[in-house]
Amino acid sequence: MQTFMRLQRAVEDRAYALYRAGKISGGNFSGRGQEAISVGTTLALESGDKVAPMIRNVGTVLVRGYTPAEVLLNYLAKSGGPSGGKDNSTHFGDVAAKGVVSCISMLGTLVPVMAGMALAAKLRREPIVTMTYIGDGGTSTGDFHEGLNFAAVFRAPLVLIIENNGWAYSTPVDRQTPVKDLATKASAYGIPYAIGDGNDVLEVYRLTKAFVDEARAGGGPRVLELKTMRLRGHAQHDDAWYVPKDQLEAWKKKDPVERFEGYLVQTGIMAPEEIEAVNVKIEREVEEAERIALAAPYPEGTDALKGVFADDSIVRFRRWWEEP
Ligand SMILES: Cc1ncc(C[n+]2csc(CCOP(=O)(O)OP(=O)(O)O)c2C)c(N)n1
Ligand SMILES: [Mg+2]
């Protein structure tokens, strides 16, 4: 848990530096302050389960076996990255090899997608659980409600994680909904829910594991709301001027990574020097990943057609295009 949380932070810090240096075009997002959620929830899954991360869940893809180099190659839109240079963010996945369903930017849409995937697994009698994430803002979308209702009716083994980080871009939660606990929305569909501390990786793991086990045992969907705070702006271009400084400072004291490292030292599980050694190793690994990503080539123009249509349809399209 400590390694993956530090790895997420190190990879995202490196991406932030690359963004500031003008090497990443478009937006660049960060899950700083929310690492315990990505890591704790994903570690609670079995290898055959399917997970769909959102933009703040780089920890999820790292736990699932993507390397820091692959993540940075993708941010830089290089050809060797998982999206082959088609995306400059975190929109990549590999359902068969890694059990990762690509992030979809349109908020809420992954809820029906993962509900459908869970139902498909159930119909095939495969003991698989699906999981995805949604922000506080995303719970206002129609897809969130339709997807949850669908999952509830078909008792699909879906675990939905609500990452309540207090803000949807510049909109605070109390301007988004009059409901204090977002997970209570699940009870409208007869879905059991729980609410936990998203900055405590052990609690995140424990609550997720219980829900994953229940969903796998045939109990139907579950909704878990984890309270946390976005420690950077919505994306790197946004300095979050609208967030009250005292709110930010209070949450910085609850930093999930430092908090867990403090716990490991206090309980004698790891000595400070051991933690330091892990963190130095991670920094080196991420420096090497950056070197690889910067040196890698951009895709060829013709690569733009690859993976967009089934190969056969490219042939048909060319034939149609070239015929007078
Ligand atoms: C359906 C939809 N509406 C609007 C957007 C633009 N948008 C992207 S992220 C975002 C804020 C999301 O807030 P939240 O769901 O709380 O997630 P967080 O960014 O806090 O992780 C908005 C409005 C979008 N991607 N999809
Ligand atoms: Mg939010």
Class by SSE composition: alpha/beta
Name given to the CATH architecture: 3-Layer(aba) Sandwich
CATH level-3 fold name: Rossmann fold
- Mean pLDDT metric: 95
Sequence-ordered SSE layout with sheet pairings:
Blueprint lengths: L1 H19 L14 H9 L6 E3 L5 H6 L4 H8 L19 H4 L11 H14 L6 E6 L6 H12 L4 E7 L2 E2 L2 E2 H4 L16 E5 L3 H19 L2 E6 L17 H8 L3 H11 L5 H24 L15 H12 L2
Give a written overview of the molecule.
With 324 residues, the chain is of the alpha/beta class. It has one domain: Thiamin diphosphate (ThDP)-binding fold, Pyr/PP domains (Rossmann fold), CATH 3.40.50. It is built from 13 helices and 7 strands. The chain has helices at residues 2-20, 35-43, 58-63, 68-75, 95-98, 110-123, 142-153, 173-176, 201-219, 245-252, 256-266, 272-295, 311-322; strands at 50-52, 130-135, 158-164, 167-168, 171-172, 193-197, 222-227. β6, α9 and β7 form a beta-alpha-beta unit. α1 (2-20) packs across α2 (35-43). The longest helix has 24 residues, at 272-295. The protein is globular, with a radius of gyration of 20 Å. The termini are far apart. It binds thiamine diphosphate and magnesium ion (MG). Thiamine diphosphate binds next to β4.
